Backbone:
């Protein structure tokens, strides 16, 4: 099983960016924890990628259709604005799980709507790093059950 983990804009600043909202783990620490978890779940390949650029995230989805079984994404602010990412998810036909460190529904009203949730297998938010961990577990389960 091969999984792509995508991190959207500003997530490269984790650890120092608003730690009261996003926690103190760095992106490198999150990726390392995900690699460790992936090994225990039987994932043979876990690739991680971060970009502040919408088009690069779209390109990553297009590339993933050639090698991945699924995608875990924290789209950051593109969650609320990106029809291009929504279309990319729909176009590639891979199962996708959306994850957010913070509880977007407990924040500003403009964060309460996800443009992507409707084309994702599921969404997790508000559990810090565990949103990623639970999202990876759910994605692996979804792929294994053949849904």
Residues:
């Amino acid at each position: 099983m091969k999984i792509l983990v995508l991190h959207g804009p500003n997530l490269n600043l984790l650890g120092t960016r608003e730690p009261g909202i996003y926690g103190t783990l760095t992106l490198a620490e999150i990726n390392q924890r995900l690699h460790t978890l992936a090994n225990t779940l039987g994932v043979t390949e876990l690739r991680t990628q971060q970009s502040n650029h919408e088009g690069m995230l779209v390109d990553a989805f297009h590339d993933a259709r050639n090698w991945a079984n699924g995608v875990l994404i924290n789209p950051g602010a593109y969650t609320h604005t990106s029809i291009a990412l929504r279309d990319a998810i729909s176009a590639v036909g891979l199962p996708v799980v959306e994850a957010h460190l913070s509880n977007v529904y407990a924040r500003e009203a403009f964060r309460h709507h996800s443009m992507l949730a409707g084309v994702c297998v599921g969404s997790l938010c508000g559990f810090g790093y565990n949103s990623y961990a639970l999202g990876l577990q759910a994605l692996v389960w979804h792929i294994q059950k053949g849904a």
Q: What stands out?
A: The radius of gyration is 14 Å.
